[in-house]
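Lab notebook, page 48
Experiment: co-folding of the full assembly
Goal: obtain a model of how the components sit together before planning crosslinking
Operator: M.T.
Materials (sequences as entered):
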Amino acid sequence: MAEPVLRLQRLTKYYGVVRAVENLTLEVYEGECFGFLGPNGAGKTTTIGMILGLLWPTAGQVQVLGQRVTPTHTVALRQVGALVGTPGFYPYLSGRENLRLLARLYPEVDDARVDQVLEQVGLAEVGHRKVKGYSTGMKQRLGLAAALLHRPRLLVLDEPTNGLDPVGMAEVRDLLRRLVGQGVTVFLSSHLLHEVEQVCDRVAILHRGRIVAQGPVADLLVGRRDLEEAFMAVVQSSQTF
Amino acid sequence: MTTATLFFTLVRMEIRKLRSRALFWVEAGLLALLVAALYVALLAMLAQPPQNMPPAVVEEIRASLHWPQGLLAALAFGNGGELGGLFAVVLTAAVVAQEYSWRTVHLWLGRGVGRGVYLAAKALGVALGLGLLALVPLLVGGLVTGLATWHDTGVLPWNAIPWSQVFTGWLRVGLTLAPYAALTLLVAVVTRSTLAALGVGLGYNLLVENLAAEVLLLVSPQAARVARYLPGLAAKAVLAPLTEGLQVEMGMQRAGAAILLKPGPAAGLLLFYTALALGLAWWAFRRQDVTG
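Observation: model returned without errors.
Model output:
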């Protein structure tokens, strides 16, 4: 079997005595879209924080493209594009200037590529405006543009449609489908089940910091109307333990 | 991209960000205004010196308002124990802590930028910004004292300007700013709060250090000698060659003049404080969970 693009092994994070995630083990392979589902507070963002080297795991490890990632060892993240929560940008710079600043990290990214990703996320017309004047949805789009800027092999997206209107959400879903079609691996964290159902091949369901189900979307849907029903069944059965 | 290339790329980004920040230009403008106001006050005093002021002092003030002495004296306005320290704290607090509140620190760390490289580039970016701010008093003071020189003598003595002294003076002023900026950077990293960094930085600069020096002076002459190891008096010692012979002095050196360290050890002490604060900041940043 091919080397996974992302591997989490017994990943655990405690904040003091509070468990955020425990013993997460999963693998994401090249070219697949992996859905990371869970209710609010399940530990999705904490997991992504550890994948991106922002948080120290209490135990376990993260491997990206075969290399271990910790907050002090992040070389593999050069090939990762990420969007975590509401993305942060320099408010006194325009959207385009923010992306140009980031582009300096990647010698292969030029101004034309910056304009291209702005176009891709529907911000070409407002790229010249300062970010402090952007709505939440526009910031989310800019975050997506920043994640795509350097043509990453792995995209890690945490609630990418937050703050978007229905049209924007549909556009993001289409974009993700296109990217997966182009061979980009996507790790998509969301609590919007229909969103995940439409774009992901496999999912893991996280509940109270633990993975309670994992597998292909088609398998989870067997005997169920949709992913929402499957999700509710899995979460409710895990609560009985 | 090698670590060195990445580091210099990040430093260039820091400069780019600094250039675009209104705060930097507001600080530079404010510093220019304050220095200009100080000179106007000195010129006004010189026009009508107080009757009880000894003629020798009047002559020294006059010298400090003319080239070449005026250029060196102008530099000292931006030192860490005076106006420069306050501006250094404000700039450092904003530049470092706002990366947390804007969540922009995630942008860099989540892209594989190492924490050590990030912090080192941030520290150098701040240092370059402060270096530019330290030039403001020189430019404003140079202009004002140049005009005064030309008005009084009809010539500008370009050949008499000690350029090497001006340059080393600028470096000395930069060194006096470093411990205050490093302390602020440390607090900004540990607390992730602009307000906390400002509070501690300004509180130390304006209150704690002066108070400690005064209290030590009151205790005994021996205890007062401890005060010379504080950044404020160490800064005075480093700047002593710059302001030598001038009575137009500011702040604490009146009390501390007799106990100042020699400039060399004082410079070493300032470097030590700076390195200590930066080292602690790096240690804290390395262990930090960047959340929120």
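Interpretation: The radius of gyration of chain B is 20 Å.
Next step: discuss with group before ordering constructs.
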